[in-house]
């Protein structure tokens, strides 16, 4: 597929960590990567970060001091694989004036501050987040609320079926939309009607496909799903492309390439997310422009 230059008007996604539970390392994990969940989202020039797994350290090294003065990190929930990168986020170490804001929706309106303060303090960790140069602010909301930011950006949220709850996010920009549906266990009946409406007609859905069908039979109640259920949801909701995410750390490159080929027989626009892979969704043309000229989602290989 041809590359194209990313535009400031695009809705852009870049994967910095795609594994679930724990990191994966070794020569058999090169193509898909080994970091735990972290995704960079750009609504034009506006930066959001989803989850703060170990991939956040890689994103932070990439951003350096070019990160904005205020960085917004949207947490799906507070399990360790989604927050373990926070004290290693380089922009938090480079400026006393930078503000790092976390948003958490699975604590019935409470922020993540108390939980993060317990984790990032002795004896579990040598320092507290408040000892880093940047200033941390923690905001709570209830999954299902719509988040509104001072610049006019809004992000819809949805409560997901996961132990302790998890939050899904829907981003919209330039007529395009991306949904983040990780750390979810499919329910019966499936697809869930409310979730189907939440992801309806999205250009891209990022979905928790941690287990194979065979593995899931031994892991029910653990809060995760399969790529098969992701395809079912995507088709029911008219989702245009599907990225399988929160990859089981034991699934190596060979296993994942076989899985990807199988899912593409059912949904050709489905794929397994790869670390540092970028998806750029160009703005839809203004009314009156022929539909044939409307650009489709473009997968840009990582450099």
UniProtKB/TrEMBL annotation:
Residue ranges of coiled coil: none
Domain named Metallo-beta-lactamase: residues: 35-210
InterPro entries on file: Metallo-B-lactamas (IPR001279), RibonucZ/Hydroxyglut_hydro (IPR036866)
Gene3D superfamilies given in the database record: Ribonuclease Z/Hydroxyacylglutathione hydrolase-like
Pfam families: Lactamase_B_2
Keywords carried by this UniProt record: Hydrolase
An example Gene Ontology molecular-function term: 3'-tRNA processing endoribonuclease activity
Presence of the UniProt keyword Hydrolase in the record: yes
Keyword Hydrolase carried by entry: yes
Protein name per UniProt: MBL fold metallo-hydrolase
